[in-house]
What does this fold into?
Amino acid sequence: MTSFDIRRVGGRIGAEILGVDLSEPLAPHLAEEITSALLAHKALFFRDQSLDDADQIRFASLFGELTTAHPTVPSVAGQPHILPVDGEEGVRANRWHTDVTFVRTPPAISTLRSLVVPPYGGNTLIANTAAAYADLPEVLRTFADRLWAVHTNDHDYAEPKNQAAVERRKVFTARRWQTAHPVVRVHPVSGERSLFIGGFAQRLVGLGTEESRDLLRILQAYVTRPENTVRWAWAPGDLVLFDNRITQHYAPDDYGDLPRKLHRVTVAGDVPAGVDGALSHVVEGDEAAHYTPAAAAR
It folds into this structure.
C-alpha cells in the first residue's frame, strides 16, 4: 500500500500519481514510495501541480544530487540546475533518445515541468527499454548483450528549423563528447536489463557505418513498439518524472509555431554497466565533471 493513489496509464509503462502535492516538502516515507513506484512504472505523471523552479529543484533533489542544466547548453538565468526546453527556439527533440548519453555518466532521473503548452500536439512519448529488451528473440538478446555503441552530441539529433536553431546547435556541439556504452545496460537498482541506445548512439564498436545503422535500427524498432510506449498530453502545471536509465522519450514536432515551454531538472547518474560488469568509457572528450558531480558519479 502507498500513501497515494496510482493509476496506470500504459500497459507496460507509466502511472499517474494522485493525492500528492509537490509544492510542499514531502515526508521521507512519501519520497521512498514515489521512488518505488518509479522503479516499477519507469515514468510517473503528476497533474495540476502549482510549482515554481524552487519546488521542482527541491522535488528532484529527493532522488539524489543534481546535475547542472546541460554539458553545453546554458541554464535558465540564475538557475544552474534548470534547462529551458523551448520549442520556439527551433530545436525540437523529435527523435527517440535517452538524455545526455554522450557523456560517461548520463542522468539517472529526469523531471520535466510544463510552463506553456500548445492547445494541441506537443505531447511527450516515453518508452520502456527493459520491455524492449525482453521482446527481443533470444538469439538477438544474446547478440545484443555483447554489443557496445558510441554515443556523441555531434550529429543531427534535432534538425535546426531557423537561424536561431543553427546558432543553438553550435552551442550544443561547442564541446564534443564520444562515449562507448553497453548496448544492454544493467539497471543499478533493479538489476533489469534494457536497451541503452537512442538518438545519440551513432555506431557500434567494431562494426562499420552501414552495419551499425542497420543493427541499431532493428534494435530501436523494439523500443518504439506501441505496446512499450506511453503518450502524455501536457496541461499547464504538470510534472513528469522518468527513470532515464531505463527509458527513451520523444517529443513530436506537431504543434506548428505554437509556444511550448518546459523546464528540465536532472538527477546525476552513475557509470552504466553491461551484462558482464564492464563500465562505459570515454572515447573523446572528458568526464564532464562540470555537469555530473564526481561524488554522484562514484
User: Anything to note?
Assistant: The chain is about 20% helix and 25% strand. The chain has a mean pLDDT of 93.
